[in-house]
Amino acid sequence: MNRLPIHLVVNKEDYHLFVKPNRVLLDVLREDLELTGTKEGCGLGKCGACTVLLNGRPVHACLTLALQVDGCEITTIEGIGGEKMHPLQEAFVDKGAIQCGFCTPGMINTAKALLDENANPSEEEIKQAIAGNLCRCTGYNKIVDAIHSCGCQSKKKKGGIK
Amino acid sequence: MSQLDIVGKSFPQIAAQEKATGKTKFVTDLVLPRMLYGRVLRSPYAHAKILSIDTARAAAMPGVKAVVTFQDTPKIKFGPRSEDWTIFAADKTRFYGDEVAAVAAVDADTAEEALELIRVEYEELPYVISPLDAMKSGAPLIHEDKPGNIAADFKIEAGDVDRALDDSYVVYEDHFYTNQVYQAYMEPMSTLADVDLSGRVTIWTGTQIPNMMRMTYAKALGMAPDNLRIVVPEYGGAFGAKMENNIHLVAAVLAQKSGRPVKLVNTRHEDFIAGNPRVPMHFDIKIGATQNGILTGKDVKVVGAAGARLVYSQVIVATACYRVDSLYRFKNVRARGYTVYTNTVPTACFRGFGNSQSTFVLESALDELATRLKMDPAELRIKNGMGSNETSVHGWKIGSSGLRECVTKASDAANWIQKKKDKTPFKGIGLSCCNHVSGNRPFAREFDGGSGIVRIGKDGRITVFHGESDMGQGQNTTFAQIVAERLGVTMDMVNVAQVDTDISPFGLGSFATRGTLMGGNGVLAAAKDAYEQMADIAADMLNVKPSDVQCRKGMFFHTDSPDTKISFQKVASEATIRHHGAPIVGTGFYQPPTELPDPETKKGNISPAYPFGCQIAEVEVDPDTGQVSVTNFVAAHDVGRAINPMATEGQIQGGIAQGLGWTLMENMAYENGKIINADFVDYIVPSSFDIPDITTILVEPIEPNGPYGAKGIGEPALNPTMAAITNAIYDATGVRIRELPVNPQKLLAKIQKTGKHTKR
């Protein structure tokens, strides 16, 4: 199979790659770029472990062909925080929202996309947003709490609710 | 007990930041130089004779470095408990997914293509899926040396069951079925294997039982256990499944043949069809009570499906036969448990280990008794519940029991009495209790305790070595807390080493809810040893007696004059200098006061501590569709003492979510001998929308045998969930659920029959 050139911006860094047309973004990230924070849980877009942000929106990297995202900006879990952890990452840690942690990168990416769009989501909105991200360890209660706490914090910072 | 600084406080997992930032290297993330990618060719038939295998074309394909079949293995029969395994099917395949051949190639695509070039000629054989059918005469024989497909037959009896039932005021008798469900941990089974020049094999894998697995695999590979090293990186959940599985051995054989490291990762489909899912069981139960609601006797027959080979199903069926007997003050019990070979994926451990199956049955039956006795189901449980310092019918010595407190606290929190009176159609509330163990003497082999090593380096850095397994539940954090508490240091000073059988103690592993108690007591003993060595040096440096010093928050000080003090780091440095570089190494072990059950009577004391719990579910049943939604959940669990309350709550909430999935959503469905829903498209596990708010209540009676009073929680978190929900469905509709999972169509049909829907 001929390899074709693509250009990706991953976590704000430029990558020029040659990929097979059937290569999915997940394999490019995990194998070619060695960004193993993005996980493969099912390969069918049903578990959400491979969720990354494509131009800010959550997508399943396991179903996305690398060629489809030529020229796009991609954020993986490695690019979510800066020098310090992102507030969502801190909240997941502090609230006990992480057990085995295999779903965590995808879950945090989905949550980030939600909060970027809706700074103070309700519990229902949070549950709606993460409905495609499976977690088998926590029973979701603490994940919802963690995301919810970030919503409140962002309001606090804006001087809103006490 | 003196004041606790670390134990009893909620700490995030020590690995949580790494996990939150994507830095954690899970098994599937591991890469070695020159690593090959393995793939397994699996049987497309439930039962088939292998006439021939032609691997020549696959082996000749560019990029393929090894192709292996049974012929490339040592051809030794082996198994965790019963030696009915081979690495790859030898002359016939026994389930859809059975390992037939494997390839290792330079990349995953090449390996996949090579699989298609392997030609296998099969002759299909008649197959059998249901264990009830497999027991019938004339059923296809799965293992030629096991007539009637009976893999194991377990019997237990105490008291006079027939007389007790005859004399009972009420007797309830029924048939129940608990289905086959999949653990659905988020990281599929995966392994990396490498061989050195001497032939020594290293396997990196997510396993709950690194040392026990090593003994089994050494036999399979025909090598001394010393020549096999197992390393356990972080891994993505297990819930019982990640024990022995052929893929680890396939990777090892591929590495041996290719001379290169080989990574083998199950696709999710493969993980469904060849993992180790829950043992499905048929139950016949007969149970009686007096007019006052005192349980009289219980008679149970269990038939469980082993699948095509024995992993641990025979022990699980045995557990289903009698563990629940120690939940209540039974005097007369009898059980017979058949473990039966079937042409299905080999079944094994899944959170609850047989006790979850029989807890569903018993707790459903208790609700039926309560109805017949016109008694509050909660009262029936309180009346019969096992209390502290009692001995059960099988000789189990219950140290602490918080069972009654669990029932009353859960009832209060759920507003049970009020809600039970409220008869809003299609809304219901249900209650269920459970007991469990913290370690299981008969499941372990030569011993059942735990051990640890605590190393303190020159800079005061503490490393804890254990041989159990953190599968994501947070065991390493619990151990770090126990060690930090005992040493008197802060959490940031403690590391927990990756389990490596070359270095770690010979721990038995994480099963039977044993980690916190057995492993925790093991590392506690090691910490005590290390502390005493440190205290001697600290006392010398402070010019006081060792008995007069103590350490808190990383500072040794004189008990009576706290200003006479020296830091833990300075003492560690001095220790290393005095010992010419040798670190302080504390070792220790815990020998539990258990008794191996008598082979005949099965009397013994299988665990040093017994956790209990009570869960209450509220449901709404859609009168038009029969769909059940769980609207509220309260769970009170006797955990002895929660070393880490946040982690303990997480265990409870996670267990309930899995139990809810089992009750209402999950089922491995077979058609033509194949699992037809072997992926997350068709096998639906609970998502955020399916799980209600779960109120957790920690009941802490402080267990005398536990480390700082702790018992286990992993499995009891799930055990009562199924019956709590189905008892709530009964309350809502008058329909008794006797088969898992709840089938909305059947439920609807039965609701229409009972006429209860007319109340709408």
Question: Which features would summarize this protein structure in a list?
Answer:
heterodimer; A: 162 residues; alpha+beta; Ubiquitin-like (UB roll); DNA polymerase, domain 1; 2 domains; disordered C terminus; B: 760 residues; Aldehyde Oxidoreductase, domain 4; Aldehyde Oxidoreductase, domain 3; 3 domains; 8-stranded mixed β-sheet; 5-stranded mixed β-sheet; 19 helices; 29 strands; 28% helix; 24% strand; globular
Fill in the CATH topology of the largest domain in chain A: Ubiquitin-like (UB roll)
Largest sheet of chain A: 5 strands, mixed
* Helix count from the secondary structure assignment of chain A: 5
* Number of structural units classed as domains of chain B: 3
CATH architecture of the largest domain in chain B: 2-Layer Sandwich
What's the total number of strands of chain A? 5
Q: What is the CATH superfamily label of the largest domain in chain B?
A: Aldehyde oxidase/xanthine dehydrogenase, molybdopterin binding domain
Oligomer: heterodimer
Mean pLDDT of chain A: 93
Element order of chain A: H for helix, E for strand: EEHEEEHHHH
Q: Roughly how many Å apart are the termini of chain A?
A: 59 Å
Number of strands of chain B: 29
Describe this structure in words.
The complex is a heterodimer of chains A (162) and B (760). The N and C termini of chain A lie far apart (59 Å). Chain A folds into 2 domains: 4-79, Roll (Ubiquitin-like (UB roll)), CATH 3.10.20; 87-157, DNA polymerase, domain 1 (Orthogonal Bundle), CATH 1.10.150.120. Chain A is built from 5 helices and 5 strands. With 162 residues, chain A is of the alpha+beta class. In chain A, strand 3 and strand 4 form a beta hairpin. A 5-stranded mixed beta sheet of chain A has the order 2-1-5-3-4, covered by helices on one side. Chain B is α+β, with helices and mostly antiparallel strands and 760 residues long. Chain B folds into 3 domains: 16-23 and 449-590, Aldehyde Oxidoreductase, domain 4; 31-125 and 186-237 and 242-274, Aldehyde Oxidoreductase, domain 3 (Alpha-Beta Complex); 281-441 and 599-759, Aldehyde oxidase/xanthine dehydrogenase, molybdopterin binding domain (Aldehyde Oxidoreductase, domain 4). In chain B, 28% of the residues lie in helices and 24% in strands. Chain B contains 19 helices and 29 strands. In chain B, strands 3-5-1-12-9-10-11-20 form an 8-stranded mixed beta sheet, sandwiched between helices. The longest helix of chain B is centred in the C-terminal third of the chain and has 28 residues, at 515-542. The radius of gyration of chain B is 27 Å and the shape is globular. The N and C termini of chain B lie far apart (57 Å). The relative contact order of chain B is 0.13. The mean pLDDT of chain B is 97. At the A-B interface, helix 2, helix 3, helix 4 and helix 5 of A face helix 1 and helix 17 of B.
